Amino acid sequence: MKQRVISATEFKAKCLSVLDEVHANSESVTITKRGQPVAVVVPSPQRPWKSPKDSLAKKGKIVGDIVNLDTSVLWDVVRDE
What we know:
The chain is an alpha+beta fold. It has helices at about 10-15, 15-25, 70-80; strands at about 5, 30-35, 35-40.
């Protein structure tokens, strides 16, 4: 794995493209100032993508009858008017 070294001035001018290269190639870049290394840009560790399919599994609870819900109390309020 070849390490790329660039000056701070060049990094400032091409920051976004350097970050894209680091991400695409998974290689680090050393940034120098007056020939001395001052920073290293490394790719972030990639977390595996997790499907949200089962993220809510067994988190809810059904209370009562969800098909034949008694709404007569709601209609009594309308009839009193």
